[in-house]
Amino acid sequence: MKIRDFQPADAQALYTIFYGAVHQVARKDYNFEQCNAWAPLDYDQHAWISCLIKNKPYIVEQQGQPVAFADLQDNGYIDQFFVSAQFPRQGIGAYLMQHLLQQAGLNNMPLLSSNVSVSAQPFFQHFGFFIVQQQMPVVRGIALSNTLMHKVLL
User: Fold this and answer.
1) 108: alpha, beta or left, given left = phi > 0 and alpha = psi -120 to 50?
2) What gap in Å lies between CA 74 and CA 79, rounded to an integer?
3) Are 105 and 140 in contact (CB under 8 A)?
């Protein structure tokens, strides 16, 4: 495994990872309608690429193929953290989270935060994140539960 920076040519592969993570992994905690609102099959490719360019995610590659991605914003916010549903429980997410924590340390970030899905809460808790509040954001007209989580670093 190796970690590298995002390149615009990664956009389709990252959407495939995102879509699979939502529809295969998070599906146990969200219904069909919620998954479709969160990760629609028919999506705005330009908006997706713009989001990725803005977020500048780190990409985990395995055998030259993207298998996970996550970003870390300058304010310590993690907007996206997704691992391919084809590679569950292989340490890819842990490898990526360790990289984010290392980057946060190098940049003297005092706090990390993320709006975390029900499915990902145990993973984030394993890395020392704690629940700040439960939330019910509306995405494409559909309510999706998530949790604001923080991790204090300094």
Assistant:
1) left
2) 11
3) no
**What percent of the chain stands above pLDDT 70?**
100
Q: Domain residues for 105?
A: 2-152
Nearest CA among 64, 42, 30 for reference residue 143? 30
Q: Residue holding tokens 């990760």?
A: 39
Chain segment 85-122, per-residue pLDDT in tens = 999 889 999 999 999 999 999 999 999 999 999 999 99
β-strand partners of 59: 4, 69
The count of structural domains within the chain is 1
DSSP string over 21-32: IIIIIGGGTS-H
What is the reported pTM?
0.95
Q: Tell me the CATH number at 126.
A: 3.40.630.30
Q: 124: helix, coil or strand?
A: helix
The residues, any chain, with a CB within 8 Å of residue 79's CB and separated by 6 or more, are 55, 71, 73, 114
Q: How far apart are CA 61 and CA 57, in angstroms?
A: 13
